[in-house]
Amino acid sequence: MGVTRYNLDVDELKKTDFRLLYVTTSKYEGDWQSLPHTHHFTELFYVLNGTGNFLIEDRLFTVSPNDLVIVNPHIEHTEKSMNANPLEYIVFGIEGLIFTFDQKFENENFGLYNFSAEKNQLTYLLNFMLQEIQEKNPHHETICQNILEILILYINRTHDLGINTVPSSRMSKECAAAKRFLDANYAQNITLDTLVDVTHMNKYYLVHSFTKYTGLSPINYLIQKRVQASMDLLCNTNHSIAQIASSTGFASQSYFSQIFKKAVGLSPNQYRKRNSPQEQKNK
Question: Which of 34, 110, 112, 155 has the CA that lies 20 to 30 A from 102?
C-alpha cells in the first residue's frame, strides 16, 4: 500500500479577524437605480453575468462576467447595468478588513480584477456559501465565515493583494479621509497640522481616533507607508539610496536609513542585496 503524507506548517495557520456581515445576490431588472453611497465596511462585488459600469470616486469602470470589484470602507461608489445585458452579481459585506492593491491600483482604495482563469474555483466556493445561507442548517454561519476566509486568501494569492485586518469599530469619515490622504501623498511633507487641515478635526481627537482604528498613530502610519514604498523601490529599481529616501518623503538619507533599519532590521543596502533578482534566483 502506498501512503503519501503531507504535513502543514503550523506557523502558517493564522486565525483571521475579519467578519462576514452579509451576502447579497442581485440581478438588475430596470426597477432599481443605485445611488452613490459609502459603507463603514469593505464590499466585494463578483459579476456572474451581464455588463455594466461601476462609478468609484468619480472614476468609471466597465465590468463583465468574472470581474471582482473591491471597495474599501468609506469609498463612494455605485453600479449601473447595461439594459441590453443586465448585470447579475454577488456582493459580500466584510467588517474588519482593508485591502491594499498592486501597481494597477496603487494608492487607491479600490481595485478591479478579472478571475476568468479561476472561474471554476470561485463559483464553486460562492455556490457552496449561498447554499449554506439559503438552507440555514446548523453551523451555517461558521461554515460561511470559513468559506469567506478561503476566498480572501485565494484572491490575495492570485493577485498578490495586501490584506489588513483592522478593529471592527466604525471609522469616521474624517479618519478615512486622513488615511486616503496619507496613502496618496506619503511622499509629501506631511505633519499633523496638514491632516487637521484635511479633516477639520481636533488634533488630539484625530490622533486618538486614527490610532484606535488602524493600530498606529497617523505619523507612524505615514512612516510605515514610506518604508513599504522604499522596500519596493529598493527591490525593483536602480535608484540610489538618497533618491529613494527623497522620493518616499524622508528628509534625509541618514534619517531614512535609521528608520528603515529600525522597521526592517536591515540597512537599505543590506535589504537591497538580499532581495536582488540574482539573490532570489540563487535561493
Answer: 34
